[in-house]
């Protein structure tokens, strides 16, 4: 329990730290990686290069500090981040290391303004925040371990099939190399894939949504190939070009809480842009298998026909469903974008909508779904990339 004085210091200095947040976390990562280069096996270098992770961590620590009196207020955000941490295999013993370098960075950036009293207060507050994360993550690890065929951290999987879905998206069917089955997962969850690309010094980890309904023996991910010179594309280009059937990649257990509520039978709309279609495929197949009478709408936006994936899968699932409408909108074609009018004609505003795609697409879809009368709690979405929302939690 933090003393009242400590809490007051933390809350009153949080805005100062927030103001220097990006500078502090930039120094933090520089020094952290200099002292612990092994952590470069865990962090996404592309996010680092773009400063995205710096902002995410800074936001998270300050938001937690602002809510230090009632950390349960930010529990939903903690849970979302904890899913990511668990998927990455973050361990409790890494928290003090991050804490130490965060404190040192605060001191380095703020100089004399960071008095011993202020630093002590932040050290204590970090301890409380870290304990909250460690506790939530310990439960998640336990749950993952105790599931049938469950495991913690990474284990080798064999690529048993590689199937091209469009000009840019290829699916990889993955089975545990030890011959075991895979745990049941919820539609919308993702796995992490870890690879050591020849010629690279450090492993790289990326998250990919599972793109089919839960099956006992395999996972499927569907990866969009980014441009060869895009730092975000290093792993996707490697998977597309160099990983073939029979090869091995390391995989962590399913995680994430952008989930289809499978207990509902009310109307549901799946709305995706580009590779955001992947979690929607898992959700659609789950509805097709488990509640085929559920009124369902599946809208997808793609630039053109050659980039639209899963046309056959969608048709196949639709054949099993008694009440489905589906359509792909090509931005280069006569239909153009998914507009408010299109949403109004397809989507039942009394149901639920699941949205996934690039950030501008999601912002537009959420805005238009609200405009046609949906309430915020009926609209479910997941941004790919570092979560920025903790502040609003
Ligand atoms: C991701 C916060 C501790 C490693 C994140 C994200 C946030 C965050 C907000 C982005 C989540 C997302 O992408 O959805 C925090 C806070 C911590 C903490 C508040 C301490 C209380 C740690 C520790 C490690 C770690 C101890 C391990 C050394 C990572 C990694 C990512 C991540 C590798 C993925 C992003 C990337 O690779 O760029 N964390 N974190 N974090 N965190 Fe943490």
From TrEMBL:
Protein name as it appears in the record: Flavohemoprotein
Ranges of residues in domain FAD-binding FR-type: 152-261
Source taxonomy: Bacteria, Bacillati, Bacillota, Bacilli, Bacillales
Catalytic activity field: 2 nitric oxide + NADH + 2 O2 = 2 nitrate + NAD(+) + H(+); 2 nitric oxide + NADPH + 2 O2 = 2 nitrate + NADP(+) + H(+)
Region (Reductase): 149-393
Cofactor note: Binds 1 FAD per subunit.
Binding site for NADP(+): 274-279
Record NCBIfam families: PRK13289.1
